[in-house]
Amino acid sequence: MKRRHCLSLLGTTPLLLSGCASVAGASGAPADLPLRGTGDLGVVVARATGTLAIVDTSQRTLLAQVTGLGDLSHASVVFSRDGRYAYVFGRDGALTKVDLLTRRITARVMQAGNSIGGAISADGSLVVAQNYTPGGIKAFNAATLELVADIPAAYENGQLSRVVGLVDLPGRRFAYSLFDANAIWITDLSDPARPVTTQLPNIGRQPYDALVTPNGRHYIAGLFGEDGLAMVDLWEEKPRARRILAGYGRGQEPLPVYKMPHLRGWAVAGRRAYLPAIGRHEVLVVDTDTWQEVGRIPVAGQPVFVMARPDGRQVWVNFSVPDYHRVQVIDTTTQSIVRTLEPGKAVLHMEFTPRGESVWISSRDDHRVSVIDTQSFATQATLSIDSPSGIFFTSRAARLGF
Amino acid sequence: MKRRHCLSLLGTTPLLLSGCASVAGASGAPADLPLRGTGDLGVVVARATGTLAIVDTSQRTLLAQVTGLGDLSHASVVFSRDGRYAYVFGRDGALTKVDLLTRRITARVMQAGNSIGGAISADGSLVVAQNYTPGGIKAFNAATLELVADIPAAYENGQLSRVVGLVDLPGRRFAYSLFDANAIWITDLSDPARPVTTQLPNIGRQPYDALVTPNGRHYIAGLFGEDGLAMVDLWEEKPRARRILAGYGRGQEPLPVYKMPHLRGWAVAGRRAYLPAIGRHEVLVVDTDTWQEVGRIPVAGQPVFVMARPDGRQVWVNFSVPDYHRVQVIDTTTQSIVRTLEPGKAVLHMEFTPRGESVWISSRDDHRVSVIDTQSFATQATLSIDSPSGIFFTSRAARLGF
User: Fold this and answer.
1) What is the arithmetic mean of pLDDT over A121-130?
2) Which residues contact B252 (CB under 8 A, 6 or more apart)?
3) Where are the beta strands (DSSP E) in B170-291?
4) Which of A11, A66, A262, B138 has the most CB atoms lying inside 10 A of its own CB?
């Protein structure tokens, strides 16, 4: 906590806002910072203040707040494979590397004008950002944030498409969707100096987000411009996109949609996937062998995140306005709601502890993060954090597609 | 490496061999040890010398060797949820807590006369050992190794059964099998002062090892005394054991078995499980919806460990003597062998990096650990370690049943 003021000052220097800056020698251990493991660390985005809160999921406490991260609306985070560093993708195009142990920014680069998230390679060597402006992806050396590859998403007449749905795949490959070009691209960055991109065109109109299944096999993009989804079996020798779930979408008489669901929130539990219906108060159940819809579960509002507890026994759902004070829990053995919780105003995100014994929930307008026991539903702790949104734990480093 | 000699000396003091000993204040950071993340750490058991080698899976290097751990034949390891501490279960009944950051033993207790492994609760608070002598399980405070619960596996006439197949379940519960009592027990240690044990008797003759599926739902014990396996659906309100795979076993004309397969090595990939046939040169393929056998894959010897790469695309197999210089790789999309490797003499164990880009393989008689790229099968590094056996990475802390 001592370092907070120092970081505030550093965060406003032009150096940090204009380029790659190493503000801390990352090796030595300051005398006042004890050695500690990183497996139970996490971060909470406090977007109103451009702050990253560092939390401890064993003690359920706030350890520190790192300021000076810029515009963190819609920010997302990936972690180095040692769990020490968080890479924060800001909406303003900044990519910031934060050392969770020294609690400092160690590098920061303005890499785009408008960015919407990123990914990290399995070997931890490459951090990749997906950008709206200019449209495309950029790959950075994870140690230094030096730019190592720039792949503009160029289509007709040299225009650049906005990029969404970026995920990491085995072998330093990345899949992503081109919103304006109706395409899915897979870029192999085995040799960052010579990227090799496979383009799948005409996958459907306006892919707006995507996910990869936990095994890295199926890449699925939601379509904004039509009903249905585009799916690619990445294990096929020549991957191709095919259309699934033609009934998934806003339908012929579109309902008002208050917030687009997040596809990365999709839950795969056992052989079923649970996904947010768009505009409807329903969670759809899909068989992942046939990719056919096999059920619908009525819920308390328009679902935003639909997330499986790591063991798949439960699926937790939050909602868009006006129902975003509620969270519902589905038991996947009975496909029914077993609990409705009201953890606070404006629930924006949820994150499970690695083995799922607890879930952390951010209630933005109550400036609170609640830690809830997923078996008893008792509140185990609450943390005061200014306008919390995304919650990300270091255990993501060990998982594909996170 | 500086500390190696020091630890050798400590390892021979009676204090360490006779009881719980805290030999290092675990908080301060010694000046020569830099801060570092723990997500990419692991240990290799060097059983001939009672040594634990600490390795870095990002740099693919040996960081340190900690001596004085006693008899490490058949040793197994679990990790604290922060990834900082390894709990080592020695065959001689010792439970040793090793700090991977300071590279020291921080606590050690002789907890039984003959022990065969252990588990840790999801919340990281309890470490549990399964014992042959005296038969039963014991639970320890993970911070101090203080004994907090002792559950003797008492059956007819007060005899104590040897315990095998211990796994952690959600909610500080543990499942295990009683070799001599033909039973499976599930003990709830929510309140360690008042353990509640559910006993399932008559599950089949002589359960010799067991596993829990990655979602924590199915507990499966192999039977030494008859063909077939015992399976418990832990999600049922009143769990009960039923018999599956009546053809699994040595058969009516038993073949010689050179080494019993390890059931924890079982691979579940997608909806199929891959398991070592006993005494036969085959891997069995089982449908996890029906628990029926759906195929057999011929392999190069009697399989010991059959392990899925984290994404389930590949299954790696090692073998008992005389074929234990080989490792084979099965592609699960085609159910066929795609590669046979010879990484060294006496391959005893394999461990995948968290996202599966590499596998580490121990070749005991070549005193070598090989790191192999799972896509290209190229050897990325080799490490010299004295008689290496089990390899365990800290990412296990985030997984159920490991």
Assistant:
1) 96
2) none
3) 173-178, 183-188, 196-200, 207-212, 218-223, 229-233, 241-244, 267-269, 272-276, 282-287
4) A66
d(CA A288, CA B73): 43
In a domain, B380, yes or no: no
Nearest-by-CA chain A residue for B171:
A357
A253 and A289 assigned to the same domain: no
What total of structural domains would you count in chain B? 2
Question: From the CA of B378, how many Å to the nearest CA of chain A?
Answer: 13
> Number of A:B CB contacts under 8 A?
170
Cβ-Cβ contacts under 8 Å, B41 against chain A: 82
Q: What is the pLDDT of residue B254?
A: 59
Do B299 and B234 share a structural domain?
A: no
With CB atoms and an 8 Å threshold, state whether A400 touches B83.
no
Residues B249 and B121 in one domain: yes
CB contact under 8 A, B38 and A34: no
Final residue in a domain of this structure, among A297, A320, A342: A342
* Mean per-residue pLDDT, B222-236: 92
- What is the DSSP pairing of strand A327-331 with strand A336-341? antiparallel
What pLDDT digit, counting tens, does each position of B121-132 carry? Answer: 999 999 999 999
Flag if A36 and B84 touch (Cβ within 8 Å). yes
Which residues of chain B make contact with A289, given a CB cutoff of 8 A? 271
Query: What ipTM score was computed for the predicted complex, to two decimals?
Result: 0.89
Domain-ending residue, one of B342, B372, B389 = B342
Q: Say if residue B256 is preceded by a cis peptide, omega within 30 of 0.
A: no
Please check whether residue B217 lies inside any domain of the structure: yes
Burial class (CB in 10 A: 0-12, 13-18, 19+), A285: buried
Over range B389-401, report the average pLDDT: 93
User: Domain check: are B246 and B288 in the same one?
Assistant: no
Region A14-42 average pLDDT: 57
Calculate what percentage of chain B has a pLDDT beyond 70.
Answer: 88
In this structure, are A215 and A283 located in the same domain? no
Name the closest residue on chain B to residue A308, using Cα atoms.
Answer: B215
Range of the domain at B306: 268-342
Give mean pLDDT, residues B301-310: 93
Look at strands A76-79 and A85-89 and give their pairing. Answer: antiparallel
Q: Does residue B55 form part of some domain?
A: no
pLDDT in tens, A59-86: 999 999 999 999 998 899 999 999 999 9
CATH number, position A296: 2.40.10.480
Q: What is the pLDDT of residues A176-198, one digit of tens each?
A: 999 999 999 999 999 999 999 99
Q: Is residue B387 part of a domain?
A: no
Q: Are residues B217 and B249 in the same domain?
A: yes
